[in-house]
Amino acid sequence: MSQRPRPARIRDAEATRARLLQAATAEFAAHGIAGARVDRIGAAADANKALIYTHFGNKEQLFDAVMDAHVSRVLDQVPFTADDLPGYAGRLFDYLLAHPDQLRLATWHRLERSGTGHETEGLRASMRQKTETIAAAQAGGRVPAAFTPEDLLAFTLALTNAWMPTSPVAAAGEDAEQHRAAVVEAVRRLVT
After folding, report:
1. Which residues are in the HTH tetR-type domain (predicted)?
2. What is the per-residue pLDDT for 167?
3. Phi/psi zone of residue 46: left (φ > 0), alpha (ψ -120 to 50 degrees), beta?
């Protein structure tokens, strides 16, 4: 009995790049940069691992591309409004619960990339845009100026992350609705 030959694969660089980013997201979320393995990423993406170097340069640059993609996704799906920081905190809370890899990637980024001079442009631009938007709202009297824009953003993000599954105080099966309400109320109190 003869075997049928496998159909020739059509080369699609963008599809390969997308598969590599998806596989890298799972690998980096689970293992961080140091623990991630390009051979596992290549296998999960059904691509030759050499293509990682072709498309991204190296493992660290691949991680940066993953971070930028996820920052872009958050920006698209969780609109930031300085005039409604409590609402933003609630929307971000919902997003992070639905996308746990996002918080894991951010945690790995803080552990392995912060302070190294390799801040991703998307993350840097996002933080800059948010603090500038808060500063403008403060200058316009719409947001109290009791805290610097940087502090207010840091507090909002920290409160939002406090009840995520990676938090040391969050227990499995906790009432997410109750914690979401507490986060929104805490941020509301920061800005009133």
Report:
1. 14-74
2. 64
3. left
Q: Is residue 119 part of a domain?
A: yes
Based on the structure, what is the number of domains in the chain? 1
- Of 36, 102, 112, the residue nearest 69 (C-alpha): 102
Relative orientation angle of helices 59-77 and 100-112, to the nearest 10 degrees: 130
Range(s) of the domain holding residue 109: 66-190
Residue 144 belongs to a domain: yes
Asked whether residue 29 is assigned to any structural domain, the reply reads no
165-182 in b/e burial notation, b at 16+ Cβ within 10 A? Answer: eeeeeeeeeeeeeebbee
As given in the structure block, the two tokens for residue 38 are 């390009």
Q: Reply yes or no on whether the pLDDT at 1 is more than 90.
A: no
96: number of Cβ within 10 Å? 21
Model pLDDT for residues 105-163, shown as the tens digit of each residue: 988 988 888 777 777 778 888 899 999 999 999 999 999 999 999 999 999 999 998 88
